[in-house]
Amino acid sequence: MENLYVEESYVENPNVDTPYVQYMYSYPHKTAYRPLKGVSLREYAPLLKGAGHGLYLHIPFCETKCGYCNLFSVTGQGSGALDRYLEAVERQCGQYEKLLTPQNTEFSALTIGGGTPLYLTGEQLERVFGLLEAHFHFSREREFVIETAPEQTTEEKLALLKQAGVTRVSMGIQSFSDKELLTLRRRHSAQRAREALKLLKSFEFSCVNLDFIYGIPGQTRESLLKSLQEAIYYDPDEIFLYPLYIKHGVRLEGEGVKPDRNGALRQYQLASRFLKEKGFRQDSMRRFVRNKGEREFSECGFGTSLALGCGGRSYLGGLHFCSPYGVSQKECLAHIKKYEGCRDYTEITHGILLSSEEIKRRFVIRHLLIRPGLPVKEYRMHFGSDVMEDFPVLKSWTEDGYVRKSRKEPEISCGDRKRSEGPDKNNGETYLTLTEKGLAFSDYLGPQLISPQIRGAMKEWEESHGRIYDAVPGEPEKL
Ligand code: SF4
Questions:
Q1: Average pLDDT in the 245-270 region?
Q2: CA–CA separation, 471 vs 20, rounded Å?
Q3: CA–CA distance from 164 to each of 96, 142, 190, 205 (Å)?
Q4: Which intervals carry biased composition (Basic and acidic residues) (predicted)?
Q5: pLDDT confidence tier of residue 300, bands split at 50, 70 and 90
Q6: Which of 75, 116, 146, 328 has the most ligand 1 atoms within 8 A of CB, as the residue to mutate?
Q7: Is residue 28 lining ligand 1, measured as CB closer than 6 Å?
Q8: Which residue ranges form the domains of the chain, and what is each CATH number?
Q9: Could you give the CA distance from residue 18 to residue 31 in angstroms, rounded to a whole number?
Q10: pLDDT digit string, tens, across residues 378-428
């Protein structure tokens, strides 16, 4: 068994109530989106000119709802409901194709997420792949990512993925302990996860990612390490390690289950060290990558990504849009029904138009939380100002040991390919990089970068729908 010695250096941090405030996977959060009027995709289509864009399809169906899940997904839907949804997706594809053809749009990344995309039948999956190919152009080297769950991972469906050119499969395992899986209200058993993983590996996709959760009530450091040890046996290319959040409206909240906040940071620290000892590179608080099969993040604040389906989010310059945020089955079903009845998918009715100040914040959040970090010169080049002056909190984070300056040439990570394009654009670039302590406290630091306006909009949403986060972050700095 692993040595369970944990350095106490940052575990005890009297100034921080909890390191687990909010996961900042994007900015702004969907709860800050509002109804939009008079916005048409037509005006924004030129942003999708040429190559280098992402296409996302959301499949909002799952067999059962996991206890902690607040993603846009519904359960209990039969094949007829799925067919109806795909008919709407097909209509949306047709309308988007008309807008994109004059732009010669070529997508370099395709992601199908959910929900559980493999909840679709084999026939429906073939239909999806066929219609995406028929309506859109993709680069020859496109990345094709799909999410799956152990119960839906069958030989027949994996063969279809292989045939369709899927490059990366991400599977939610969460734990190899049946007790912990039960606590999470996951449907699969540890044995089913093992079988699915063995099958998945036999198809030799170029990248296999596995998701795990820590901070589960009753989980110990030993059981977490045991799960990770077992995962490594299957030789995954990436592991994402998520702290358990129980937000408002999820099933576990109703059951009175609370995440193990006290144990979580220690579990994280131990698991992070363990994975690095096993040859993984840590790129963010959650992402651990083997040095082989490296993959860059395709979206660092300026990326363009178009979403299909209900619940998927599009990013086109300062316009971010998607269907209204929903957690409950009732809300999600109502949004799906509206999506299926939509006549004009080019009319954008819900989202946000970012101000230049919010675009700066997005740039900082998207870069700082992912190594190699925030490129200081690049920031100045884009915005004409100094990031430390715009965000004085970065100085105090440097003094507090969360952030350090680094001039190290970046390993492949967030947007490196883009950064390395052009005549030595980043030669001598200085990065503001999260330290080990900073990585561990990413979910505490990130929320402090939310602007007062966005925080206000999120608060307003929470007050009308119920609070969705475990804690309220400190006062934001002024830009
Ligand atoms: S966590 Fe994933 S599999 Fe579970 S209900 Fe949510 S979307 Fe479905």
A1: 90
A2: 8
A3: 21, 12, 29, 12
A4: 408-427
A5: low
A6: 116
A7: no
A8: 30-290 (3.80.30.20), 356-448 (1.10.10)
A9: 22
A10: 999 999 999 999 999 999 999 999 999 998 654 444 343 344 433 344 557
